[in-house]
Specification:
This protein is α/β, with parallel strands linked by helices. It has ten helices and twelve strands. The chain has two domains: about 150 residues, HUPs (Rossmann fold), CATH 3.40.50; about 100 residues, HUPs (Rossmann fold), CATH 3.40.50.620. Strand 5 and strand 6 form a beta hairpin. Bound molecules: glutamic acid.
Length: about 300
């Protein structure tokens, strides 16, 4: 298998489903500061696989905002929508290894037959393990899991483990609607671009064991992981792009958003920097970032703003 680059890197991988949001800025900042402090390259990847959810113009707007904020990336961004051939090649390899199998189950059938739902949705009961059980033309491809626990250390959430077969079940790498699944794409991209350090939101902590298992199947080294606590909205829910524009990063509010993101990451900024341009704040953080100050509590956006 050809790796595009072997030099170690961190990365930020936004989904272009809307403009840059404070929640994503926190992930961008965490990955950037940690990568730079570790002497790594920092890469950008646009996760635009899920075509129906992609918003036209959002990717270029996100890139523009990151530039305004002072981020500097080391290579041209990778666009997942341009990498289908590579994902197909890896899926083919897994087919040869007999690690994947075609599945004819619809979501409704899985919900009906799943004995219990894990945190990530219904556990796939393995209906098609020995051949597609139904007549559907459109087949998904699932990765065969096993009952040995997948253990890993997260730099923030400490030791984690998951038994994939019992808690997730065999999971989809290629969807019946013809799209490659996020789990496959993210592992192939990180592996091909030399990503050795993954920093992202805690909403993906539950995907990590699946990704580590994929690295095992592909006989590739596993990156280090740091999942960041999530920023919450006033209702205690994860802030999302769909909940209005409260956390959208604009050119005008860039200094405030950069300040809030650094405060969220537990950093103690010198008061004289309040109101300084975002790139100056980023520059300060590059020198002074202390990852051990990231705090376990999830603080709502309103509480962060009240501190300004
Ligand atoms: N594209 C994902 C998101 O925006 C992040 C994927 C990853 O960091 O692995 O939530």
């Amino acid at each position: 298998m050809v790796a595009v680059s072997q030099k170690a890197a961190g990365r930020f991988a936004p989904s272009p489903t809307g403009p840059l949001h404070l929640g994503s800025l926190i992930a961008a900042l965490g990955s950037y500061l940690l990568a730079r402090q570790s002497g790594l390259r920092w890469l950008l990847r646009i996760d635009d696989l899920d075509r129906p959810r992609v918003v036209a113009g959002a990717a270029s707007e996100i890139l523009q905002r990151l530039e305004d904020l002072g981020f500097e990336w080391d290579e041209d961004p990778v666009w997942q929508s341009r990498r289908y051939a590579r994902y197909a090649e890896v899926l083919q390899q897994l087919k040869k290894q007999k690690l994947v199998y075609p599945c004819s189950c619809s979501r409704r059938e899985i919900l009906a037959s799943a004995p219990h739902a894990g945190e990530e949705g219904p556990v796939y009961p393995g209906t098609c393990r020995n051949g597609p059980a139904g007549q559907r033309q459109q087949l998904a491809w699932r990765l065969r899991t096993h009952s040995r626990p997948i253990c890993f250390h997260d730099r923030f959430y400490a030791d984690q483990q998951q038994v994939l077969e019992a808690e997730v079940g065999d999971f989809v790498l290629f969807r019946a609607d013809g799209l490659f699944a996020y789990q496959l794409a993210t592992v192939v991209d990180d592996m091909d671009t030399g990503v050795t350090q993954v920093v992202r939101g805690a909403d993906l902590l539950g995907s990590t064991a699946r990704q580590i298992y994929l690295y095992h199947c592909l006989q590739q080294p596993i990156p280090s992981y740091l999942h960041l606590p999530l920023l919450l909205g006033g209702d205690g829910e994860k802030i999302s792009k769909r909940q209005g524009d409260t956390g959208i990063v604009s050119r005008e509010n860039a200094p405030e958003m950069m300040w809030l993101a650094l405060v969220f990451l537990g950093q103690c900024l010198p008061p004289e920097l309040l109101g300084a341009p975002a790139p100056d704040l980023l520059h300060w953080a590059l020198e002074s970032f202390q990852p051990e100050l990231i705090r376990p509590c999830n603080r709502p956006l309103a509480a962060l703003r009240a501190g300004l």
